[in-house]
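Sample entry (384 residues):
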Amino acid sequence: MDDKLMLMIPGPTPVPEKVLLALAKHPIGHRSGEFSSIMAEVTQNLKWLHQTKNDVLTLTVSGTGAMEAGIINFLSPGDRVLVGCNGKFGDRWALMSAAFGLAVEKITAEWGKPLDTEQFREKLVADTNKQIKAVIITHSETSTGVLNDLETINRHVKEHGTALMIVDAVTSLGAVNLPVDAWGLDVVASGSQKGYMVPPGLGFVAVSPKAWEAYQTAKLPRFYLDLGSYKKAAAKNSNPFTPPVNLVIALQVALGMMQAEGLDSIFCRHQRLTRATREAAKALGLPLFAPDEAASPAVTSVAPVSVEAEQIRAIMKKRFDIALAGGQDHLKGKIFRIGHLGFVSDRDILTAIGSLEATLRELGDESLAQGAGVAAAARVFAES
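Predicted structure, serialized as tokens:
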């Protein structure tokens, strides 16, 4: 049946009908007063979502572009940076930092394990000459389904005193509590196709006063991603370049939906979906790749043993039109990932888990108790 695709991946995520309809409107001029009013509302609501009074700037980029802007605007060639690497995206920020001539020092953990916060503390305490200029962390590492302990790492950065805290919050913003001002985070990057419930194309960078001070002396080249230009334009409810007008209009609608639901309810919903998915996988005898205590609210990674991950994904797509994510790099073919980020409900999880049970049976797993996964997820929903 056409048009029944169900996205259960960590991005792009499902888009609400109201947001899709906003995309279908006739474009308006990006220098018009009408669009300026929309930008003013969007910027204010972005600050609400980020729990900040500081700048939140909107760029026409993906999450990677937002992270690049967050790095190049506040650092100079040769600056020493600590980069947390325990998955695809932490590794990406290390590569990006090296590409811009930064002195990269990786703090690594095995894929599927959270970063060791003590290693950051030791490096930062030992830096008595204050040579470390930034610590770069992926909060929710979607390649593995791990949520890193950003709060503790950030506390060590604050005790250091001078290093900037640069955060990839691409799949944690809008899914888990991330109080930017309360924690004193300096640079926070995210993307529209994740918790924002909008198609790909917009990136966001929240910037602290401390980061703006660093901007004044940063020497990495920048032009299109010069956040100073975006800051000046944002003060006039505008943009230094042509933005994707309809995506911004769609974002206006999505942020309104998020405000109506409320931050606490959004965070609780994602926690509920995460627990339900993980309990269902356990009931189906499917090993989880990341530990419960470090489970990402965006995605659950599963490492099947008796059946192949890619076979599961293929049947889920062909028979049930449900898209699951696969493993990346050396995990390709070894894990599959169930997304539960953004516009996802209890019903979506029950549908996906029921389809997963049927898929496992088709692949010859006769040991399953009938309805075990759905029952486990339903128990979580009943208790929440």
